[in-house]
Design a protein that fits this description.
The protein is an alpha/beta fold and 261 residues long. It is built from six helices and nine strands. Strand 6, helix 3 and strand 7 form a beta-alpha-beta unit. Helix 1 crosses helix 2. 20% of the residues are buried.
């Protein structure tokens, strides 16, 4: 084991892969050291396959990203670039590496969501920013409003009541088919990151929220026009990862989310 310290395995991945653009020099140095250590322990004879190296690279990127995620919580957007990946030298396919406890990298599916499904990003009870999914069902009834997934959180329930009262008062301005007297509404709130339910459906800090959107697989983001003032705090490459759509009223947000002019 002592003699193996003289061997350099840090560049063994270069034959098959290269690192994505989100890794800075310090990240690359740390990842290469872990790759070298794992390779010496698992394949001290220097014989390994592409698949075996891919496994080592994935684990090393995950460990480094975990460090970066903690730095991001401490130091803010200076460490925003946590979306680590590696690129296959043959196929040019880019593989993104997520941190399991962060909830994975594709919480928001690609393409058109199921009717009644809405994804939002907000700050939960723990103070962390996460992804929430709202699943709505509309059934024939007499205007009853039921909520599941909120537990005993009184503030969250009060916030949902406020939202439903807004729908009662303004639903007709969106569509004449909306009725809060002849239909029942059932909404299930899901905390996809396990950070605690929230009473807010707003955007607390734009740059951090957009980073969570990127990590979760979002492609299009609706923002209130009041958030435009914060654009200067968001790194250019993070802004360029989305189609940003601004709205000024909740009604306008509905139309733009549905692609209705």
């Amino acid at each position: 084991m002592r003699e193996m310290r003289k061997e350099q395995f840090s560049d063994i991945s270069d034959k098959y892969f290269k690192f994505g653009t989100n890794l800075n020099q310090r990240d690359v140095i740390g990842v290469r050291k872990m790759i070298s250590g794992f390779a010496k322990l698992l394949y001290p004879n220097g014989e390994f396959t592409k698949e075996e190296i891919a496994e080592i690279v994935t684990i090393s990127l995950e460990l480094r990203r975990r460090v970066k995620e903690q730095l991001k919580k401490i130091g803010g957007m200076e460490f925003y670039d946590v979306n680590f990946s590696y690129i296959d030298n043959e196929t040019f396919e880019e593989h993104y590496v997520s941190v399991p406890e962060q909830g994975g990298g594709k919480l928001i599916p690609e393409g058109i969501s199921n009717p009644g499904h809405v994804y939002t990003v907000s700050r939960g009870k723990t103070g962390m920013i996460g992804v929430y999914r709202l699943e709505t069902q509309v059934l024939p009834g007499n205007g009853k409003f039921e909520r599941t997934g909120l537990g005993s959180d009184r503030e969250a329930k009060e916030a949902t009541n406020t939202a439903f009262n807004y729908l009662k008062a303004n639903g007709r301005s969106i569509s004449n088919s909306i009725s809060t007297t002849t239909k029942d509404y059932i909404i299930n709130y899901q905390d996809l990151n396990g950070i605690g339910i929230t009473k807010y459906l707003t955007l607390p800090t734009l740059a951090n929220v957009l980073q969570v959107c990127l990590d979760s697989g979002a492609k299009k983001v609706l923002l209130p026009i009041t958030s435009a003032a914060e654009m200067g705090t968001v790194p250019a490459d993070l802004m360029g990862a989305f189609s940003i759509i601004f709205y000024s009223t909740p009604q306008e947000a509905v139309f733009k989310a549905l692609g209705v002019e």
